[in-house]
Amino acid sequence: MFISLLLKTLSFTDCHPDLLQRKVLFNNTFLPKAAFQPPEPIPYRVPDTADAFSDYKYRSACNISSLDLHTPFSPLCQDRKALLEAMSGGGRIGYDAPFMPRGCDMRWFTTEEICDILGRFEKVIVIGDSMMRHVIGSLNVMIRKDLGYGAVTDWNFTPKERQDCFCNFQFNVKACSVQGIFKTADVMKNDPGSLTCPSGSIDLMIEQMVRFPMPPEELTRFRTLLGTIKPRKPHAFIFGHGLWNGLDLQATLDWLDLLLDIATEQLPYLRKPAAFWPRLFITPNAAGPRKPDEFLLTQGNKALVLFEESVGFEMAPRGVDHLGTWNMSVQSNIYDGV
How confident is the model over 325-336, as a mean pLDDT? Predict the structure, then answer.
């Protein structure tokens, strides 16, 4: 579900006006006095009403439906600003109930639409900590159509790893994180048949840069990744940071500003006012019941809420979009409990 939120945000950076920006003026399925209206009766919303995972590998074994994660309704959000506010402010009607944005709805994209969105960019670069590893892992699940092993390098698994890193367990930080897929190139090299997107059409990767100050080798690697030549298509950046610096707002801003400065140093065209430079910052999810007591003061839910609000204020002057995840996750079953 969280990944559909992310993809919807990216889609608005380069959308098809005839589809994504069309205003639905009339909904003939309107139900008087209903708290939430049914989705608009147009072809564009049909995928939202069906299980998007129905043809994924291990659908039955993993026992999860996209409809368990998101309940569609109308109206559909009409622009990126409304979408981000709706997703950041949305929630659930009951514990572990499907997520619903606040005020307007999101799309649940098909895998083919996901490939199209990611393919609009030269690179989609995810930067951050273990939460961002879950982000890229979830994207890999969707572009490989594999709920069992889509996030991990199952092509080189031992029988024990296939047992330990199956379904939700593939996101186990301690047991399976080193087997995560960190770039599309690895899939193309080792298991190209598992990728649903056309060959060579997407380039998705993660740079794990978890705390500030950053080691020199991480900064060198980031500079090398960007290069110095303007790409044929724009890069998209998805940032996530906070917990490794104890939700220290200034440390997070210093971390982000340094990365933005490096990007403009490497690619000076990004300094131009008209430069197309999609950037999204994602703040951490709610704390779960297994959060160690020693972190409750600095990383508990009060600290997380204040951090998310403060980061939101700081992103707009930098031209960076912000997606909050606290409301989305506070009433959900958090897999690792922290």
Answer: 86
Nearest Cα to Cα of residue 247 among 301, 299, 310, 302 = 299
Indicate the pairing of strand 99-100 with strand 91-92.
Answer: antiparallel
Q: What is the pLDDT of residue 127?
A: 98
Residue 28's pLDDT band (cuts 50, 70, 90): low
Tokens of 189: 């090299």
| Nearest one of 47, 44, 82 to 67, comparing CA atoms | 47
Cα 167 to chain centroid distance, Å, stands at 18
Amino acid at 82: A
| Burial of 68 from C-beta contacts in 10 A (0-12 / 13-18 / 19+) | middle
Residue 190 CA to residue 203 CA, distance in Å, equals 15
pTM of the model as a whole: 0.91
Cβ neighbours of 263 (radius 10 Å): 20
Residues 6+ apart with CB under 8 A from 87: 5, 8, 9, 101, 106, 323, 324, 328
Residue range 50-72: average pLDDT?
A: 96
What integer pLDDT is reported at residue 18 of this predicted model? 45
Residue 14 has pLDDT above 60, yes or no: no
CA 1 to chain centre: 9
